[in-house]
User: What shape does this take?
Amino acid sequence: MVQVALFAALIIILAFTPFLGYIPLGFTRATIIHIPVIIGSLMLGPKKGAFLGFVFGMTSFINNTMNPTATSFVFTPFFELGEVHGGIGSVIICFVPRILVGVVPWYVYRGLERIFGKQMLSLAAAGIAGALTNTLLVMNLIYVFFRTAYAAANNVAEGAVYTFILSIIGMNGVPEAVVSAVLVSIICRVLFQYRQTQ
Assistant: This one.
């Protein structure tokens, strides 16, 4: 329980320290908050990882309600931009992908380690899987629930909104996945070795 509290505290500190956990890019925010969620999942298992993902989702919900950007309606039902406002889709986008960030990496790591027996490769793949779970689910759910409003908020034609979403996945998601692979593999290896000595 202490370890869960420590990871949750780290997520909260990252989330509410300006320009650290959520990095504003004008039309959206990049994030590194998924990294402690992924590490927590790998260290503590998928149930506790899911809880850490919920904490991640809650920080996003609060941030987008209290400190909104033009597209915050996709993460909170309490933000309006003209006639555009969030709804149940906002809650789904805010929480479901983030909870899965705490679940998917554990299964990817366990599966690959069992098949290949290579810890660093499995950890890096888990880091990538966690980051992409967040990015791909969030962006595709935005398309499902809010494509018209999201296009309008970004001054993009509705017919071109999925191309715009793919560009965000490329600009944000790919670098986030690479950073996640590197940090998760290095940090988890050290933590696993430390745990074995205890």
About this structure: The CA atoms of residues 71 and 153 lie 6 Å apart. The first strand starts at residue 22 and ends at 24.
